[in-house]
């Protein structure tokens, strides 16, 4: 089927209408996805089967993704968080593919974003210390040519969340 250019593709949210109970379930899952179905049902004022069916529907629609565990970086010795600003003079598809591969294969990179404006990319890099950051930096620039790299050390994490305001 060919889509008409005037029609926007449907998003997961447009395929699944979320009501207040769905939103309460999502808030509970974001708060603690490890809680039992019974605990979620109690928190949202429902019973287990309807809650399970709603969660399954939201999973099938792509609204609820994989479940993971959030680890305490500092407790594991990853005490340094750097925000790395990358400028490039290269804008060819081959360079971008090489850069994306380099970033994706580095476990120190927790987030990577392509930006509009003067900075081309920003990376959130979590390492044990400055020496570990330098090893990351040296590995990155040995894989891809970059015009300028600026590393900003986070002195204090004021807020960190993965929760969306549903």
TrEMBL record:
PROSITE patterns, A to Z: HTH_ASNC_1 (PS00519), HTH_ASNC_2 (PS50956)
Pfam families listed in its UniProt record: AsnC_trans_reg (PF01037), HTH_AsnC-type (PF13404)
Domain named HTH asnC-type: residues: 18-79
SUPFAM superfamilies attached to this UniProt entry: Dimeric alpha+beta barrel, Winged helix' DNA-binding domain
SMART domains: HTH_ASNC (SM00344)
GO molecular function, one term: sequence-specific DNA binding
One of the record's GO cellular component terms: cytosol
GO biological process: regulation of DNA-templated transcription; response to amino acid
Source species, domain of life: Bacteria
Keywords carried by this UniProt record: DNA-binding, Transcription, Transcription regulation
Protein's name in the database: ArsR family transcriptional regulator
């Amino acid at each position: 089927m060919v889509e008409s250019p005037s029609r926007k593709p449907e998003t997961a949210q447009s395929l699944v209408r979320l009501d207040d109970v769905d939103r309460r379930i999502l808030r509970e899952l974001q708060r603690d996805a490890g809680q039992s179905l019974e605990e979620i049902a109690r928190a949202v004022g429902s019973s287990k089967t309807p809650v399970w069916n709603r969660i399954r529907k939201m999973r099938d629609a792509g609204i609820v993704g994989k479940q993971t565990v959030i680890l305490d970086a500092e407790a594991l010795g990853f005490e340094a968080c750097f925000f790395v600003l990358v400028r490039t003079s290269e804008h060819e598809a081959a360079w971008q593919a090489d850069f994306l591969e380099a970033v994706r294969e580095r476990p120190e990179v927790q987030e990577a974003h392509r930006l509009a404006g003067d900075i081309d990319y920003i990376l959130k890099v979590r390492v044990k210390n400055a020496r570990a950051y330098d090893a990351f930096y040296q590995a990155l620039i040995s894989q891809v040519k970059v015009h300028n790299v600026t590393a900003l050390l986070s002195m204090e994490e004021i807020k960190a969340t993965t929760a969306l305001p549903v």
